[in-house]
């Protein structure tokens, strides 16, 4: 949290919120947190000068707030259903979509080497900044304003979050986002007659974690194996 000295100083030096503060409906006490949350490592490679550490923190705060909100709203849904709803709300694609609504990327500080006119680059940057802003707001004002931001710019659009049952795609994307080699899928065995086969599929993560799924087709077995892996990873 911001120190009292910094806060008192900010009262004398900042009287009007910036454009982005008006958009996100939060006035920072420590403006340096806002600046860091918008700064890409292409112009500030030092870990404490770019948004990646704040993105890391924002991701954790987002998971907590969304999990608590879902827990309170959906009182009769089980763990698996809640996990699926959370995954739909906090996945990077949905964060990027919500960030695009308020064009967060237009406030990003990047080097000319980063082509933000490229749709994919811009989309990813929007999602990253959404999380880094959450981290910055949390550090600056605590959990209440962070919750307000998440509610006003994410949760109220819950109906736009599609629950993705492509578990294999989700699992691969999860590891790609972390820069880790994606899982491998292979057939462990096939049982039953030709007209009623059961495929047993292994998904192998980091060469040492194995999750198994079964299905009446290879595709169905892969999806079930990936779902079992996700359930283990996300809980």
Question: What report would you give on this structure?
Answer:
The protein has 235 residues and is mainly alpha-helical. The protein contains ten helices and three strands; from the N terminus they run H-H-H-H-H-H-H-H-H-E-E-E-H. Strands 1-2-3 form a three-stranded antiparallel sheet. Helix 4 packs across helix 7.
List keywords for this structure.
235 residues; mainly alpha; Ribonuclease iii, N-terminal Endonuclease Domain, Chain A; 2 domains; 10 helices; elongated
Structural class based on helices, strands and sheet pairing: mainly alpha
Main beta sheet: 3 strands, antiparallel
Query: Helical content, roughly?
Result: 40-55%
Find the count of extended strands (DSSP E, 2+ residues): 3
Spatial order of strands in the largest sheet: 1-2-3
Low-confidence stretches: none
Broad shape: elongated
Structurally, the number of domains stands at: 2
- Give the radius of gyration: 21 Å
What is the CATH T-level topology of the largest domain?
Ribonuclease iii, N-terminal Endonuclease Domain, Chain A
Helix count? Answer: 10
Question: What's the pLDDT, averaged over the residues?
Answer: 87
| CATH class value of the largest domain | Mainly Alpha
> How far apart are the termini?
29 Å
Instruction: Provide the succession of SSEs.
Output: HHHHHHHHHEEEH
What would you say the CATH architecture of the largest domain is? Orthogonal Bundle
Fraction of residues in β-strands: 5-15%
């Amino acid at each position: 949290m911001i120190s009292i000295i910094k806060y008192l100083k900010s009262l004398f030096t900042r009287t009007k919120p910036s454009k982005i503060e008006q958009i996100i409906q939060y006035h920072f006490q420590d403006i340096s947190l806002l600046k860091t949350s918008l700064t890409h490592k292409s112009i500030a490679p030092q870990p404490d000068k770019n948004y990646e550490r704040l993105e890391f923190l924002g991701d954790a705060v987002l998971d907590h707030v969304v999990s608590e909100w879902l827990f309170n709203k959906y009182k009769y849904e089980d763990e698996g259903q809640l996990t699926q709803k959370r995954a739909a709300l906090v996945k990077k694609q949905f964060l990027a979509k919500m960030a695009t609504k308020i064009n967060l990327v237009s406030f990003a500080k990047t080097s000319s080497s980063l082509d933000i006119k490229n749709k994919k680059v811009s989309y990813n940057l929007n999602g990253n900044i959404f999380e880094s802003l959450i981290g910055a707001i949390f550090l600056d004002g605590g959990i209440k304003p962070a919750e307000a931001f998440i509610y006003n710019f994410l949760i109220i659009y819950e109906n736009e979050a599609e629950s993705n049952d492509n578990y294999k795609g989700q699992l691969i994307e999860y590891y790609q986002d972390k820069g880790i080699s994606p899982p491998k899928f292979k057939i462990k065995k096939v049982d039953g007659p030709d007209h009623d086969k059961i495929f047993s599929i292994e998904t192998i993560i980091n060469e040492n974690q194995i999750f198994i799924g079964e299905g009446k087709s290879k595709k169905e077995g892969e999806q079930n194996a990936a779902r079992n892996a996700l359930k283990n990873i996300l809980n």
